Amino acid sequence: MATPNYAMETGPGAKALLWFQRFVWLGIFANIVLTLTAIFCTEWVIDALRLDPAYPLAWPRFGAFGILLLSGFYVIAAMDPCRSPWASARTILAGMRTVARKRNLRRDFALLSMKKTPS
């Protein structure tokens, strides 16, 4: 088994590593709060975000539960980023993808609302 490289924890990158861990824990906490709110107060969240009503409410709850489960994978990177570089890299890439996706979110919802459903 390979031993992890802990040079970053004591070297010049220690401050950046600490901030990385803080931001990841903050993101995990935010995901937990938002997803639990979306699971238990689904209609309120839909109204607060001014989204189209969803029926049945199981689908928005299912999506929130999926995000909650995925947040558990970030705990690995938050606890020890030097020991698990793949988890840390995946966390950074997921964050970048989320930022890029949110830029196009309004356009995607507009396109979905124009989509005709078969009758």
Give your account of this protein's structure.
This protein has helices at 7-10, 14-40, 42-48, 58-79, 85-103, 105-114. It is an all-alpha fold. It has six helices and no strands. 75% of the residues lie in helices and 0% in strands. The chain has one domain (15-110).
What are the defining features of this structure?
119 residues
Topology at a glance:
Blueprint lengths: L6 H4 L3 H27 L1 H7 L9 H22 L5 H19 L1 H10 L5
Number of helices: 6
Distance between the termini: 59 Å
Helical fraction: over 70%
Assess the beta-strand content as a share of residues: under 5%
Provide mean pLDDT, rounded.
Answer: 81
The biggest sheet, with number of strands, parallel, antiparallel or mixed sense and barrel status, is: none
Structural domain count: 1
Large-scale geometry = elongated
Q: How many beta strands in the DSSP annotation?
A: 0
Which structural class matches the secondary elements? mainly alpha
Contiguous uncertain segments of 5+ residues: none
Over the alpha carbons, how many angstroms does the gyration radius reach? Answer: 18 Å
Question: Could you give the order of the helices and strands?
Answer: HHHHHH
